[in-house]
Amino acid sequence: xxxxxxxxxxxxxxxxxxxxxxxxxxxxxxxxxxxxxxxxxxxxxxxxxxxxxxxxxxxxxxxxxxxxxxxxxxxxxxxxxxxxxxxxxxxxxxxxxxxxxxxxxxxxxxxxxxxxxxxxxxxxxxxxxxxxxxxxxxxxxxxxxxxxxxxxxxxxxxxxxxxxxxxxxxxxxxxxxxxxxxxxxxxxxxxxxxxxxxxxxxxxxxxxxxxxxxxxxxxxxxxxxxxxxxxxxxxxxxxxxxxxxxxxxxxxxxxxxxxxxxxxxxxxxxxxxxxxxxxxxxxxxxxxxxxxxxxxxxxxxxxxxxxxxxxxxxxxxxxxxxxxxxxxxxxxxxxxxxxxxxxxxxxxxxxxxxxxxxxxxxxxxxxxxxxxxxxxxxxxxxxxxxxxxxxxxxxxxxxxxxxxxxxxxxxxxxxxxxxxxxxxxxxxxxxxxxxxxxxxxxxxxxxxxxxxxxxxxxxxxxxxxxxxxxxxxxxxxxxxxxxxxxxxxxxxxxxxxxxxxxxxxxxxxxxxxxxxxxxxxxxxxxxxxxxxxxxxxxxxxxxxxxxxxxxxxxxxxxxxxxxxxxxxxxxxxxxxxxxxxxxxxxxxxxxxxxxxxxxxxxxxxxxxxxxxxxxxxxxxxxxxxxxxxxxxxxxxxxxxxxxxxxxxxxxxxxxxxxxxxxxxxxxxxxxxxxxxxxxxxxxxxxxxxxxxxxxxxxxxxxxxxxxxxxxxxxxxxxxxxxxxxxxxxxxxxxxxxxxxxxxxxxxxxxxxxxxxxxxxxxxxxxxxxxxxxxxxxxxxxxxxxxxxxxxxxxxxxxxxxxxxxxxxxxxxxxxxxxxxxxxxxxxxxxxxxxxxxxxxxxxxxxxxxxxxxxxxxxxxxxxxxxxxxxxxxxxxxxxxxxx
Length: 883
Hints:
Layout: H1 18-29, E1 33-38, H2 44-58, E2 64-65, H3 75-85, E3 96-100, H4 108-119, E4 123-130, H5 137-144, E5 148-152, H6 158-169, H7 175-185, H8 189-202, E6 206-208, E7 211-213, H9 223-231, H10 238-250, E8 252-254, H11 258-262, H12 264-272, E9 276-281, E10 284-289, H13 292-301, H14 304-324, H15 329-343, H16 350-362, H17 366-378, H18 391-403, H19 407-416, H20 422-435, H21 439-452, H22 458-468, H23 472-483, H24 490-505, H25 509-517, H26 526-543, H27 546-559, H28 565-582, H29 585-596, H30 608-621, H31 625-641, H32 646-662, H33 666-683, H34 686-699, H35 702-712, H36 719-733, H37 736-748, H38 752-768, H39 772-787, H40 818-828, H41 833-840, H42 844-858, H43 863-870
Parallel strand pairs: 1-4, 1-5, 2-3, 3-4
Antiparallel strand pairs: 6-7, 8-10, 9-10
Pfam families: GerE
Protein name: Transcriptional regulator
InterPro entries: P-loop_NTPase (IPR027417), Sig_transdc_resp-reg_C-effctor (IPR016032), Tscrpt_reg_LuxR_C (IPR000792), WH-like_DNA-bd_sf (IPR036388)
């Protein structure tokens, strides 16, 4: 897993661009040329080179491909030879296929010669151009007359960035590392190439526990990275340079600032070229650079006095907006104005520093929050009583340190402010439980807090720790008790959402929803209202009420600022669950990639391992079994680093079972389901136990699942639980009629994937009984339900009786089990058998046995050859790198 010494570009395969290549080929087959447009660095030139390379091999061109991509100065002579050698359109000889790079820079006279040759049919033109730049008049005429078809090339999305990095590095890349690379480069292929090669060279991008990890830029970009970033901004006029300088210093700014209003035409030009991006946050439109890495390079190159002047001017323009209120859209303005003043050497008041630090915490910008909190403490301001240091700033400092994983330092800071406020106590308990893993100590502190103030918010702290201890019944009973108190009481607001969550996990989602409905949530404090909506959506999903879950999600999205990362994380996870239930697994995977990139996402509702496991499940459901199995490596690494949380840990294990089953390792999946069902039932978490038994039945052990279901007992009112239980029993009885009926009922709730699966299972039952007409009707129903899904595939265990399950195109062409996939992927990264055994917590002999079967199935004899099977295939995966 070391960097090779060859040229950087050659180490990056042309991937992720298959649809664009197909589009160009289609134009060529129809006798039309192609104009490939896009912003700098997205890979236009590489795409043109790959097109010219493929044309003769694939036989898609009716002509002769020219020698590579000629320089503009050589085009005149080349065109003269084409005119001499090639016939007019309709002649008998072959015409020439000519590639021209950066045709927007072509001299007018040469462009006219080229246009004449194209119109006469002597030349078929394949060209590239920068987006947003005027073309020579003659070339624009070809485009207008349909002789050149447009092919737009854009930057990679986050999934494309992940595939590109994995193709270059040869093994799985940590999700947060992919997110950092994507955030900095905007998915720009050239910047991604240079950034990755630099990180490999300086050793900051390195393999750890089977995953490539990178913590991000240290200081300003330098070397080839900085040079490339600045070169991408070459050719800007003075106004464009000023706008880029402004955005490089502040990141993103509202478009209604006076300075930006003056530069509005400039912003529009740069937006058309992809250099500036406009995006809506809340009620306002903000502008930012499309590739923040370019901004870092520009900021590093600004003269000190110029940078200080611009920062102060921007702070002055942002501050009036930020002074109105310290929440909503203006909270971000305040953070930016205060940060700009600190960077410019000014000293904002302690109150503004604290407010800015609080906003930075919401954005999970923990280093910035630490800097601002320390600056507030440095002002020397004391608490209201005048005797103690500013405990509000100390609280912010403790939370910022905890967010960076510096939990012992956070404990020291928070201890200094102990007893000053309920918020300090909450932060101490959270850091003890989630950060340091001292759950018993956290529980003791929470119990003491409740004894001191039984009607205060400490009830919520106590409930949180009890969830972590798997004491869900105690949490639910506490919720029942506080319901008898005033609905506005802090105890109720802090405790009731967690109690409803516990009720739902205990198997009675309807009771959880009923608890929530008894409260006038609109009069609650903002954070409590948010938790209420989160649990409302969760309980609605568990009860099978998709419409209600969507309504709660809509209220969540409307109420939360887009830069409040924890709220966005929860909303993303819930929305992804809706997508998966309704058959839109690829959309779920996209949301979960963003959620999984959040490092400090651990609380009672989300843990990082749980989010990653859901991502693996969504990938498996969309047919990407190999990537799903690779993601399990990261799931297990995250689980090892986290505090044990049985509620989430069993849900992680259940997602792993789903991935194993969809990858072909049904015995392994069944074992995992059985373990989860046993643990969850013993703890009283009947919702998870039922989900495990349901998956067990779907995988083929319906009889055993039905027996254990009877021992589990009944469930509260709720369509989803009842349908799962009936599905288990229908599978155990092999009752085709019941399975057909269940398919209709799953579909009526919006659960098209389960509807398709149940109908396909009915088809199998009817076929086995010789009732072929009924079987055909069930199969038609399954296909209809599947057609309502967008990217979710039928699992192999439920495939029609006359069909084998579809293969994962990235699986290397062999039917490996999930465990064999894991071993093969790790072996392909050149880990030793002993290292693989340590990663997977198995014996070396087990690894050897798995590798023996892998080699046999794939027909390879070494680890080096395994890399060929697990690298993305050029025609199946999709990415181009280059300019």
